[in-house]
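Session log. Operator J.P. requested a structure for one protein chain; no other inputs attached. Running the standard single-chain path with token output.
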Amino acid sequence: MNKLITATHLAQWADTKDGQNYLPELVARLIRSSVSNPNKFRFPSGDGTYLPGWDGILDCSERIYGNIQGLSLWEFGCTEDVKGKANDDYSKRKDNTNGFTSSDSIFVFVTPRRWT
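Structure written below.
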């Protein structure tokens, strides 16, 4: 069976403006297909990716992707330095949660890049 989209396709997409602007939309669509009735759902895409604050906010009572249940706060990154971007975002958000309590939420970092 041939795969429609491969890891290589996603990594190449990360190098484009569309990849950077619409990664949140892709993730939002995947979440919407997995969660029937979220309490809070905010994943701006396109020009909205340049707004300050969390890149995504999800609050749901259903468990998704194995361990995510309740409030999850999301950051996205398309840069080649995946580990550096993830660490920078975590450090930045750990010190400034934008009104959320870190002990009551899950930090999620998403990248279309390979991360070894």
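Operator note: Strands lie at 40-42, 56-64, 68-76, 105-110.
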